[in-house]
Amino acid sequence: MPETRVQIPAAPPKFAKVMVMFKYTRFEKARVVGARALQIAMGAPVLIEVPQGITPLEAAILEFEKGVIPITVIRPTS
Predict the structure, then answer these.
(1) CATH superfamily label, 25-45+53-71
(2) Which residue, among 78, 59, 75, has the nearest Cα to 4 in the 3D structure?
(3) Are 34 and 61 within 8 A, CB to CB?
(4) How far apart are CA 75 and CA 30, in angstroms?
(5) What's residue 77's pLDDT?
(6) What is the tens place of the pLDDT at every residue in 12-61?
């Protein structure tokens, strides 16, 4: 199975085809949410309003559900 890369926002590489996909695989979702939860745990600002006392993982899941996570998934083209 080809490796799925997760890229933190910046301009996408010029050599990669960027596909806008709204349906992520469970593996992509886990990777994106986990990466965002780590960012939040390390002090990154949360991009949505969240209740007081929420864990970084719960905040990342809420961001994912609202579609505001600033991480791009690039799938290899064959």
Answers:
(1) RNA polymerase subunit, RPB6/omega (3.90.940.10)
(2) 75
(3) no
(4) 15
(5) 83
(6) 555 555 445 468 999 999 999 999 999 999 999 999 999 999 999 999 99
